[in-house]
Amino acid sequence: MADMDHSLLAPCGILCTLCVAYQGYTMKGTQRKHKCTGCRDYNKNCAFLKRDCEKLKENLVDYCIECIDFPCENLMRIDKRYREKYETSLIENLCEIQKIGATQFIEKQLERYKCPNCRETICMHTVKCYNCGYQLQS
Questions:
Q1: What's the CA gap between 24 and 29, in Å, rounded?
Q2: Which residues form the domain of 91?
Q3: Does residue 77 lie within any of the structural domains?
Q4: Are 129 and 23 in contact (CB under 8 A)?
Q5: Residue 25's beta-bridge partner residues?
Q6: What distance in Å separates the CA atoms of residue 115 and residue 57, rounded to the nearest whole number?
Q7: Do 64 and 11 touch, CB atoms closer than 8 A?
C-alpha cells in the first residue's frame, strides 16, 4: 500500500478507522449524530489521551512511545482496559510501530480487522462490521 495515510494512527497506537466513534456508532450500536474525525484532527483535544497530556496537546511528540515518560500512568491505565476489554495492548502496538514502521503496522491492523463477508473494516470495540452487520464471535 503506497501513500498510506498515517494521520489516522492515533498517538496511543490505535488505528482510528477501527474505533467505534470514528465508524460513527456508540458502544450500544446506535448511530452517532456526528462521527469522530480521528485523534489527530487539528486542534482536537477530546481524544482520551490528548486531553490529559501536555506533550500531546503541544505537539511535542507524535506517538506516546517518543515520550521520556513512556509508558505514563494514563497510558498504562488505558492499556489495561484495552487488554481486558478488546484484546489489544496500546503499549505493544506502539512498540510494534517503532519496530516495523507505521505503514506496515496499519496494513497488519487492517488485515486483522477485515470483515470476512464484505471486506470492510470491523470495529475493534464491538467486533462488528457496520457495513454488513457481521458479528465476530469471541
A1: 9
A2: 6-112
A3: yes
A4: no
A5: 31
A6: 34
A7: yes
Q: How confident is the prediction along the chain (138 residues), in pLDDT tens digits per residue?
A: 345 678 889 999 999 999 998 898 877 777 888 888 888 776 565 566 677 888 888 888 889 999 999 999 999 999 999 999 999 999 999 999 999 999 999 999 999 999 999 999 999 999 999 999 999 876
State the Cα–Cα distance between residues 118 and 106, nearest whole angstrom: 19
Residue 119 lies in a domain: no
Say which residue the cell 489495561 belongs to: 80
Is position 93 within any domain? yes
Question: H helices of the chain, where?
Answer: 54-57, 73-86, 90-100, 102-112
Q: Does 103 reside within a domain?
A: yes
Provide the residue type at 10 as one letter.
Answer: A
**What total number of domains does the chain contain?**
1
Helix-, strand-, coil-residue percentages of the chain, each rounded to 5: 40, 5, 55
70 backbone dihedrals φ, ψ, rounded to 5°: -70, 130
Joined together, the cell numbers standing for residue 35 give 462521527
pTM, entire model: 0.86
